[in-house]
Amino acid sequence: MAINIFYFLVFPGLLFAAVAGGFLSWFDRKITARVQFRKGPPLLQPFYDFFKLLLVKETILPKQGSPIVFLAAPVFAVFGATMAGVFVLLPLFNITTGFRGDLIVIFYLLTIPSFSYIIGSLASGNPLAAVGGSREMKLILSYELTFLLFTAGIIMKAGQQFDLYGIIKAQQEISPYIGSISGILLFIVGIFCVQAKLALVPFDIPEAEAEITEGIFIEYSGAAYALIKLAKYIMLFVLPSLIVAVLMGGFRLDGINILWSILKVLGVVLLLTLIRNTNPRIKIKQAVSFFLIWMNLLAIAALVLIAFGY
Amino acid sequence: MSFKSHCFKKSLWVFHFGGASCNNCDIEILDCLTPRHDLERFGILLVGSIRHADVLLVNGSINNHDRERLIEIYKQAPKPVLVVAIGACGCTGGIFADSYVFAGPVDKIIPVDAYIPGCPPKPEAIIAGIVKLVQKS
């Protein structure tokens, strides 16, 4: 029991994932700045932002709407992100959970933050937040099927295995799945799903800063917004880690391989950042058709290739 | 210096309120975020919602219509919030000071923490003003 609480709160869970995600968030902002020929923020910037919001700023509750739901939503978002983080990171750090179906559980846990944002935005009683919430809902509807096909592809590739630990071990024994044609297709699909799940620029439609001024987060301030930032940091670490785990052979924790493990995560985040810096925001209609038609076709092509053994 | 105020100074998020502005100050404010003067080095970000803001940047002459909206925006901001008046119009009224629609410079409506005069102020002047604001708070 105590070890489970330790897993949740300290090592692969809340504290570790938040610190790692904070550094990845700094990395993302620094790369963005370098792409735009700027200098970029200092290393501890995400932590300054978080502690400023948590400790200094006042939290304003909505007058119309439901304050309790409004405040509970960020807590649920952090909970979902941390829980998914524990399930993804434990097998990555070579600790078996002994749980056979964890890939399915991860798939559901990863949607909790997005759903919490929707609930929180609709509870705030702000019309722009409602627009953002409905856009986020449409975005979830469009990318979730693709993400399910992505998960199915991984499971098929691992030989009907639902166990993330087993999937990582199988890759480390033979070769990472990204080394095959179907693996590359799955990687492309996975990267775009992660981009949409993190709401980074081509798919930042729900929080479009220029048109609906942060959309779903418009009414959040102070400690509640700090929790949302925390959930975003954790997700920024967990989702690239998931890609690394299911396609790129996971982490190895001996000698020089630690460096390779870190570089894998940084490489995936770098790819996400470059996509975000070189693309404009698309309309929600375009996002839906992008996922429902093109990404699904790609994922199905990958599934067919896997079935024929490529 | 306490941990709280250190974090606050290192991460000022700016909300931009444009009154009846001629847009020159707006352009100079945006210049601060460009590669040459990159204010993100100091953790300063432009945010879209007043609920996330730590600094309320007011420029342009405030006329009778803007007055109510400025008060409303100031009330909506989570405290502590710093107010900066930018440009001659924001600080004193500038050439609009005698106009019949002019509702007074910003500090007659809400408390102001820093003034950055100029028509328009150069980005260097805006950075100098922000440095003074950070040292004062």
What does this structure look like?
Chain A has 310 residues and is mostly helical. Chain A has 13 helices and no strands. In chain A, helix 3 runs antiparallel to helix 11, helix 4 packs antiparallel against helix 6 and helix 6 runs antiparallel to helix 7. Chain A is globular. Chain B has one domain: Rossmann fold (3-Layer(aba) Sandwich). The relative contact order of chain B is 0.20. Chain B contains five helices and five strands; from the N terminus they run H-E-H-E-E-H-E-H-E-H. The model of chain B has no long low-confidence stretch (mean pLDDT 85). In chain B, strand 4, helix 4 and strand 5 form a beta-alpha-beta unit. Chain B has a five-stranded parallel β-sheet with strand order 2-1-3-4-5. Classes of the chains: A mainly alpha (310), B alpha/beta (137).
Which terms would index this structure?
heterodimer; A: about 300 residues; mainly alpha; B: about 140 residues; alpha/beta; Rossmann fold
Short description:
With 310 residues, chain A is an all-alpha fold. Chain A contains 13 helices and no strands.
Multimeric state: heterodimer
Largest sheet of chain A: none
SS-derived structural category of chain A: mainly alpha
Strand order of the largest sheet of chain B: 2-1-3-4-5
Distance between the termini of chain A: 43 Å
Q: H/E series of chain A, N to C? A: HHHHHHHHHHHHH
Provide the structure class of chain B.
alpha/beta
Tell me, rounded to a whole number, the average pLDDT of chain B.
85
Poorly predicted residue ranges of chain B:
none
Could you describe the largest sheet of chain B, including whether it forms a barrel? 5 strands, parallel
The CATH topology of chain B is given as Rossmann fold
Number of domains of chain A: 1
Residue share in helix of chain B: 25-40%
**H-E order of chain B:** HEHEEHEHEH
Compute the CA-based radius of gyration of chain A.
19 Å
